[in-house]
Design goal:
Mg(2+) binds at residues 30, 47. The chain is of the alpha/beta class. It has 6 helices and 6 strands; from the N terminus they run αβαββαβαβαβα.
């Protein structure tokens, strides 16, 4: 009965689903958060701490936390994990040098007990830049296929134009409605 009630609440849009946006500094997390919200590219500065916004997708409400990605801030990412349903990992698709570091952060995160039920959306951002890696290349470098305990998806996008972001929100919505 409890599960049925929770599902009905979800369908009628009464429950917020917690989402966190993580990734290295300069990946484009804050630009994505505000592109989700306003459908425009905003000017950003490096995030110290976090930003939080509510985003609605056809009556499904997400509470989206955008967390600063600078090295000194990464140790505190885990304070945001509790009750998270979706982790969005943003990757700067031109940043080949730090992809291994991103991979380590991703796999460390997914081992955390507070994220055991979370789904993972990897956004291969900055697709407008020439020489950006494709979503398939990033998927391979991050060894996403080795992730078995979490539902995951990779999506190419450009936070400046918003390309790829509506499809990302659709995936997020389908995930929370399915669970
Ligand atoms: N060319 C291009 N630039 C982008 C894109 N997305 C973000 N940027 C730029 O990348 C820079 C960093 O973007 P932010 O959104 O502030 O990055 P962040 O991941 O929030 O960084 P931290 O808050 O330091 O963790 C800004 O100059 C953005 O305009 C994109 O898709 N294409
Ligand atoms: Mg930021």
């Amino acid at each position: 009965m409890g599960i049925l009630f929770a599902k009905l609440m979800t369908v009628f849009g009464d429950r917020e689903h917690k989402v966190i946006i993580v990734g290295l500094d300069n990946a484009g997390k804050t630009t994505i958060l505000y592109q989700f919200l306003t459908k425009e590219a905003v000017h950003t500065s490096p995030t110290i701490g976090s930003n939080v916004e509510e985003i609605s997708v056809r009556k499904t409400r997400f509470l989206v936390w955008d967390i600063g990605g600078q090295e000194s801030l990464r140790a505190s990412w885990n304070s945001y994990y509790c009750n998270t349903e979706i982790v969005i990992l943003v990757v700067d698709s031109t940043d080949r040098e730090r992809l291994t570091l991103t991979k380590e952060e991703l796999h460390r995160m997914l081992a955390h007990e507070d994220l055991q039920n979370a789904s993972v959306l990897v956004l291969a951002n900055k697709q407008d830049m020439k020489d950006s890696m494709t979503a398939a290349e990033i998927s391979q470098c991050l060894t996403l296929s080795s992730i078995t305990g979490h539902s995951w998806h990779v999506q190419a996008c450009c936070a400046l134009t918003g390309e790829g972001l509506p499809a990302s929100l659709d995936w997020m919505r389908s995930r929370v409605l399915a669970s």
